[in-house]
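Title: Prediction job returns without error message
Component: structure pipeline
Severity: low
Priority: P3
Assignee: unassigned

Description:
Job completed but the reporter wants confirmation the result is attached to the right record. Sequence as submitted:
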Amino acid sequence: MIAEVQQYLDYSGLTTRDFAVRIGRGYSTLKSFLGNKYEQTGGNDAPICHAAREYMAIHPVGAANRIEGELFQTENVRLIHQTFDKLLPRPRALMIYAPPGSQKSFVLQHEIYALNQRS
């Protein structure tokens, strides 16, 4: 399980501290677990293994799935693309508002796919 978590951290880019917060465990606990010292200090590692497995199952990192359908370069697509590019270097909160059916989700799926391909 340690190798699985380490591989997930390497592939996802999460730090040990970030992953610990996301699975609801302390940083030192996760660090002990990854250093194969948890059983000596914490006893049973089943809860931390369960939390890590559950998180990794819900948030998989794997090959990017190709998005079905062609994306045409409309003004909406250009605006969403520009917004997405602005958010990458420095994450911040932003809301994209448009009426239902304006293809917001479809365009963002394409943007995420393209980002995963570049990574």
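Comment from assignee: result matches the submitted record. The two ends are 25 Å apart (CA to CA).
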